[in-house]
Amino acid sequence: MSKTIAYQGVAGAYSEQACKNAYPEYKTIACDTFQEAMWMVEEGDADLAMIPLENSTAGRVEEIYRLIPKISLHVIGEHFEPVVHCLLALKGAKADALKSVASHPQALAQCHNHILELGLRAEAKFDTAGSAKELSLSGNKQSAAIASKLAAKIYDLQIIKEHFEDMHGNTTRFFILSRDKQIPHYDPSKRYITSLLFQVKNIPAALYKVLGGFATNGINLLKIESYMGAQQVKGSQFHIDIDGHSDAEAMKLALSELAFFAEDVRILGVYESHRKGDRVS
Questions:
Q1: With contact defined as beta carbons under 8 Å apart, do 5 and 28 qualify?
Q2: Is the pTM of this model over 0.90?
Q3: Which residues are catalytic?
Q4: Neighbouring-strand partners of residue 193
Q5: Contact call for residues 40 and 6 (beta carbons, < 8 A)
Q6: DSSP track, 204-258
Q7: What would the pLDDT profile of 210-246 be if each residue is shown by its tens digit?
Q8: Per CATH, which fold does 86-162 belong to?
Q9: In terms of CB atoms within 10 Å, which of 41, 78, 195, 266 comes out highest?
Protein backbone atom coordinates (compact mmCIF):
# COMPACT_ATOMS: atom_id res chain seq x y z
CA MET A 1 0.00 0.00 0.00
CA SER A 2 1.36 3.42 -0.95
CA LYS A 3 2.10 5.92 1.77
CA THR A 4 0.00 9.06 2.06
CA ILE A 5 0.47 12.70 3.02
CA ALA A 6 -2.40 15.06 3.91
CA TYR A 7 -2.60 18.79 3.24
CA GLN A 8 -5.14 21.60 3.53
CA GLY A 9 -6.66 22.80 0.26
CA VAL A 10 -8.04 21.50 -3.02
CA ALA A 11 -6.09 19.64 -5.69
CA GLY A 12 -3.38 21.86 -7.14
CA ALA A 13 -2.84 23.93 -4.00
CA TYR A 14 0.68 25.10 -3.21
CA SER A 15 0.61 22.75 -0.22
CA GLU A 16 0.05 19.82 -2.56
CA GLN A 17 2.93 21.06 -4.70
CA ALA A 18 5.09 21.00 -1.55
CA CYS A 19 3.94 17.44 -0.80
CA LYS A 20 4.88 16.24 -4.28
CA ASN A 21 8.28 17.94 -4.18
CA ALA A 22 9.17 16.65 -0.71
CA TYR A 23 7.58 13.20 -1.01
CA PRO A 24 7.09 12.42 -4.71
CA GLU A 25 6.31 8.75 -4.01
CA TYR A 26 3.46 9.54 -1.57
CA LYS A 27 -0.22 9.79 -2.47
CA THR A 28 -1.63 13.22 -1.53
CA ILE A 29 -4.90 13.66 0.39
CA ALA A 30 -6.75 17.00 0.17
CA CYS A 31 -8.43 18.20 3.39
CA ASP A 32 -10.81 21.09 4.02
CA THR A 33 -8.97 22.35 7.12
CA PHE A 34 -5.57 22.15 8.81
CA GLN A 35 -7.19 20.35 11.74
CA GLU A 36 -8.62 17.73 9.41
CA ALA A 37 -5.18 17.11 7.87
CA MET A 38 -3.68 16.66 11.34
CA TRP A 39 -6.59 14.49 12.46
CA MET A 40 -6.04 12.20 9.46
CA VAL A 41 -2.52 11.51 10.75
CA GLU A 42 -3.60 11.16 14.37
CA GLU A 43 -6.22 8.56 13.36
CA GLY A 44 -3.80 6.67 11.13
CA ASP A 45 -5.66 7.53 7.91
CA ALA A 46 -2.57 9.35 6.55
CA ASP A 47 1.11 8.77 7.22
CA LEU A 48 2.16 12.43 7.25
CA ALA A 49 0.76 15.94 7.09
CA MET A 50 2.32 18.93 5.29
CA ILE A 51 1.34 22.04 7.24
CA PRO A 52 2.39 25.64 6.33
CA LEU A 53 3.96 27.49 9.22
CA GLU A 54 5.03 30.82 7.77
CA ASN A 55 5.57 32.68 4.51
CA SER A 56 8.43 35.05 3.69
CA THR A 57 5.96 37.64 2.39
CA ALA A 58 2.73 37.09 4.33
CA GLY A 59 4.28 36.14 7.68
CA ARG A 60 3.18 33.37 10.03
CA VAL A 61 0.02 31.29 9.57
CA GLU A 62 -1.88 32.33 12.69
CA GLU A 63 -4.16 29.29 12.81
CA ILE A 64 -1.22 26.89 12.88
CA TYR A 65 0.38 28.64 15.84
CA ARG A 66 -2.91 28.34 17.70
CA LEU A 67 -3.00 24.60 16.94
CA ILE A 68 0.64 23.72 17.71
CA PRO A 69 0.26 23.65 21.53
CA LYS A 70 -2.74 21.31 21.16
CA ILE A 71 -1.36 18.76 18.72
CA SER A 72 -0.08 15.33 19.77
CA LEU A 73 1.86 14.82 16.54
CA HIS A 74 5.63 15.03 16.12
CA VAL A 75 7.58 17.31 13.80
CA ILE A 76 9.86 15.07 11.73
CA GLY A 77 11.02 17.66 9.19
CA GLU A 78 10.66 21.06 7.61
CA HIS A 79 10.27 21.93 3.93
CA PHE A 80 10.76 25.24 2.15
CA GLU A 81 8.61 25.60 -0.97
CA PRO A 82 9.15 28.50 -3.41
CA VAL A 83 5.83 30.09 -4.36
CA VAL A 84 5.73 30.52 -8.14
CA HIS A 85 2.50 32.19 -9.23
CA CYS A 86 1.27 31.42 -12.74
CA LEU A 87 -1.30 33.38 -14.73
CA LEU A 88 -3.65 30.71 -16.06
CA ALA A 89 -6.38 30.78 -18.70
CA LEU A 90 -8.48 28.37 -20.75
CA LYS A 91 -6.84 26.67 -23.69
CA GLY A 92 -6.97 29.00 -26.70
CA ALA A 93 -7.41 32.18 -24.65
CA LYS A 94 -5.34 35.23 -25.65
CA ALA A 95 -3.48 37.34 -23.08
CA ASP A 96 -4.63 40.63 -24.64
CA ALA A 97 -8.27 39.49 -24.50
CA LEU A 98 -8.31 38.82 -20.74
CA LYS A 99 -10.55 41.08 -18.64
CA SER A 100 -10.38 39.67 -15.10
CA VAL A 101 -8.24 37.49 -12.86
CA ALA A 102 -9.29 35.55 -9.75
CA SER A 103 -7.25 34.14 -6.87
CA HIS A 104 -6.68 34.23 -3.11
CA PRO A 105 -6.26 37.83 -1.83
CA GLN A 106 -2.60 37.23 -0.90
CA ALA A 107 -1.80 35.95 -4.39
CA LEU A 108 -3.57 38.94 -5.93
CA ALA A 109 -1.55 41.27 -3.71
CA GLN A 110 1.70 39.54 -4.61
CA CYS A 111 0.92 39.97 -8.34
CA HIS A 112 -0.58 43.47 -8.03
CA ASN A 113 1.77 45.29 -10.42
CA HIS A 114 1.49 42.68 -13.15
CA ILE A 115 -2.29 42.70 -12.82
CA LEU A 116 -2.27 46.49 -13.30
CA GLU A 117 0.02 46.21 -16.32
CA LEU A 118 -2.47 43.93 -18.04
CA GLY A 119 -5.44 46.05 -16.97
CA LEU A 120 -7.20 43.13 -15.33
CA ARG A 121 -10.00 43.32 -12.78
CA ALA A 122 -9.00 41.40 -9.64
CA GLU A 123 -11.54 39.07 -8.03
CA ALA A 124 -10.83 37.60 -4.59
CA LYS A 125 -11.52 33.89 -4.07
CA PHE A 126 -11.13 31.47 -1.18
CA ASP A 127 -7.94 29.90 -2.51
CA THR A 128 -5.63 29.78 -5.53
CA ALA A 129 -6.31 26.25 -6.73
CA GLY A 130 -10.04 26.74 -6.20
CA SER A 131 -9.99 29.72 -8.55
CA ALA A 132 -8.23 27.57 -11.17
CA LYS A 133 -10.82 24.84 -10.79
CA GLU A 134 -13.65 27.37 -11.10
CA LEU A 135 -12.05 28.84 -14.22
CA SER A 136 -11.76 25.41 -15.84
CA LEU A 137 -15.53 24.95 -15.50
CA SER A 138 -16.50 28.47 -16.59
CA GLY A 139 -15.82 28.32 -20.33
CA ASN A 140 -14.92 32.03 -20.16
CA LYS A 141 -11.81 32.84 -22.21
CA GLN A 142 -11.77 36.42 -20.92
CA SER A 143 -11.14 35.27 -17.35
CA ALA A 144 -7.87 34.17 -15.77
CA ALA A 145 -6.68 32.74 -12.48
CA ILE A 146 -3.48 32.92 -10.45
CA ALA A 147 -2.41 29.52 -9.16
CA SER A 148 0.36 26.94 -9.26
CA LYS A 149 1.86 25.12 -12.21
CA LEU A 150 0.41 21.95 -10.71
CA ALA A 151 -3.09 23.48 -10.82
CA ALA A 152 -2.62 24.24 -14.52
CA LYS A 153 -1.85 20.58 -15.15
CA ILE A 154 -4.70 19.24 -13.02
CA TYR A 155 -7.37 21.53 -14.49
CA ASP A 156 -6.01 21.49 -18.06
CA LEU A 157 -5.35 25.22 -18.25
CA GLN A 158 -2.70 27.01 -20.25
CA ILE A 159 -0.01 29.06 -18.54
CA ILE A 160 -0.13 32.57 -19.94
CA LYS A 161 2.81 33.68 -17.79
CA GLU A 162 4.93 31.79 -15.27
CA HIS A 163 6.52 33.78 -12.41
CA PHE A 164 3.63 36.24 -12.48
CA GLU A 165 4.54 37.44 -8.96
CA ASP A 166 5.93 40.98 -8.65
CA MET A 167 8.88 39.87 -6.51
CA HIS A 168 10.61 36.52 -6.85
CA GLY A 169 11.84 34.54 -3.88
CA ASN A 170 8.54 34.22 -1.98
CA THR A 171 8.84 31.02 0.06
CA THR A 172 6.64 29.08 2.48
CA ARG A 173 8.04 27.02 5.34
CA PHE A 174 6.16 23.82 6.17
CA PHE A 175 6.24 21.46 9.12
CA ILE A 176 6.03 17.75 8.29
CA LEU A 177 4.02 16.00 10.99
CA SER A 178 3.92 12.32 11.93
CA ARG A 179 2.13 10.26 14.57
CA ASP A 180 5.44 8.54 15.36
CA LYS A 181 8.48 10.23 16.85
CA GLN A 182 11.45 10.12 14.49
CA ILE A 183 14.64 11.62 15.90
CA PRO A 184 17.60 11.23 13.53
CA HIS A 185 20.91 9.90 14.83
CA TYR A 186 23.18 12.84 15.62
CA ASP A 187 25.78 13.43 12.91
CA PRO A 188 28.05 16.43 13.68
CA SER A 189 28.57 17.02 9.94
CA LYS A 190 24.87 17.84 9.47
CA ARG A 191 22.72 20.68 10.71
CA TYR A 192 19.62 20.06 12.78
CA ILE A 193 16.74 21.97 14.32
CA THR A 194 15.13 21.18 17.65
CA SER A 195 11.63 22.60 18.06
CA LEU A 196 10.14 22.74 21.53
CA LEU A 197 7.39 24.21 23.67
CA PHE A 198 7.74 25.35 27.26
CA GLN A 199 6.09 27.56 29.83
CA VAL A 200 8.22 29.91 31.90
CA LYS A 201 7.95 29.69 35.67
CA ASN A 202 6.36 32.64 37.40
CA ILE A 203 9.64 34.07 38.69
CA PRO A 204 11.46 37.32 37.81
CA ALA A 205 13.45 37.27 34.53
CA ALA A 206 12.54 33.63 33.87
CA LEU A 207 12.52 34.04 30.08
CA TYR A 208 15.81 35.95 30.19
CA LYS A 209 17.40 33.11 32.16
CA VAL A 210 15.96 30.46 29.84
CA LEU A 211 17.36 32.16 26.76
CA GLY A 212 20.63 32.90 28.55
CA GLY A 213 21.25 29.18 28.88
CA PHE A 214 21.37 28.88 25.10
CA ALA A 215 23.57 31.96 24.74
CA THR A 216 26.16 30.80 27.28
CA ASN A 217 26.40 27.43 25.53
CA GLY A 218 26.90 29.04 22.11
CA ILE A 219 23.57 27.89 20.68
CA ASN A 220 21.64 29.98 18.16
CA LEU A 221 17.87 30.43 18.45
CA LEU A 222 16.24 30.54 15.01
CA LYS A 223 12.74 31.47 16.06
CA ILE A 224 10.64 32.30 19.12
CA GLU A 225 6.86 32.63 19.36
CA SER A 226 4.81 33.38 22.46
CA TYR A 227 1.37 32.17 23.54
CA MET A 228 -0.96 33.29 26.30
CA GLY A 229 -0.99 30.72 29.07
CA ALA A 230 -3.90 28.28 28.94
CA GLN A 231 -6.85 28.84 31.28
CA GLN A 232 -5.39 32.10 32.50
CA VAL A 233 -2.53 30.36 34.31
CA LYS A 234 0.43 32.47 35.33
CA GLY A 235 3.37 32.46 32.94
CA SER A 236 3.50 32.52 29.16
CA GLN A 237 4.07 29.62 26.81
CA PHE A 238 6.74 29.75 24.11
CA HIS A 239 7.63 27.85 20.94
CA ILE A 240 11.29 28.04 19.92
CA ASP A 241 13.29 26.60 17.04
CA ILE A 242 16.88 25.93 18.07
CA ASP A 243 19.88 25.52 15.80
CA GLY A 244 21.13 22.13 16.94
CA HIS A 245 20.41 18.50 17.83
CA SER A 246 19.08 17.55 21.27
CA ASP A 247 21.89 14.97 21.62
CA ALA A 248 24.71 17.49 21.10
CA GLU A 249 26.59 18.16 24.33
CA ALA A 250 26.07 21.94 24.23
CA MET A 251 22.34 21.41 23.66
CA LYS A 252 22.10 19.00 26.58
CA LEU A 253 23.62 21.63 28.86
CA ALA A 254 21.27 24.34 27.57
CA LEU A 255 18.19 22.13 27.99
CA SER A 256 19.33 21.28 31.51
CA GLU A 257 19.47 25.00 32.36
CA LEU A 258 16.09 25.53 30.72
CA ALA A 259 14.55 23.00 33.13
CA PHE A 260 15.41 25.25 36.11
CA PHE A 261 13.36 28.18 34.84
CA ALA A 262 10.68 26.51 32.67
CA GLU A 263 8.03 23.84 33.07
CA ASP A 264 5.89 21.70 30.80
CA VAL A 265 8.84 21.41 28.42
CA ARG A 266 7.89 19.42 25.33
CA ILE A 267 10.14 18.64 22.37
CA LEU A 268 7.99 18.88 19.24
CA GLY A 269 10.69 17.34 17.07
CA VAL A 270 14.34 17.09 16.08
CA TYR A 271 15.01 17.08 12.35
CA GLU A 272 17.53 17.97 9.67
CA SER A 273 17.44 21.58 8.55
CA HIS A 274 16.11 22.26 5.06
CA ARG A 275 17.31 25.85 5.07
CA LYS A 276 19.18 27.01 1.98
CA GLY A 277 22.92 26.71 2.39
CA ASP A 278 22.72 24.23 5.25
CA ARG A 279 24.70 21.02 5.15
CA VAL A 280 21.82 18.75 4.29
CA SER A 281 20.99 16.72 1.23
A1: yes
A2: no
A3: 172, 174
A4: 243, 271
A5: yes
A6: TTHHHHHHHHHHHTT--EEEEEEEPPGGG-SS-EEEEEEES-TTSHHHHHHHHHH
A7: 899 999 999 999 999 987 655 555 567 899 999 999 9
A8: D-Maltodextrin-Binding Protein; domain 2 (3.40.190)
A9: 41
Q: Which residues contact 274 (CB under 8 A, 6 or more apart)?
A: 77, 78, 79, 80, 280
b/e map of 33-46 (b: 16 or more CB within 10 Å)?
Answer: ebeebbbbbbeeeb
**C-alpha span between 275 and 281 (Å, rounded):** 11
4-82+171-178 CATH, one of 3.40.50.261, 3.40.50.300, 3.40.47.10, 3.40.190.10: 3.40.190.10
C-alpha to C-alpha distance for 222 and 262, rounded to whole angstroms: 19
| Residues 195 and 242 sit within 8 Å (Cβ to Cβ) | yes
Q: Alpha helices of the chain — where are they, by DSSP H? A: 14-22, 34-42, 62-67, 105-110, 112-118, 128-138, 149-154, 206-216, 249-261
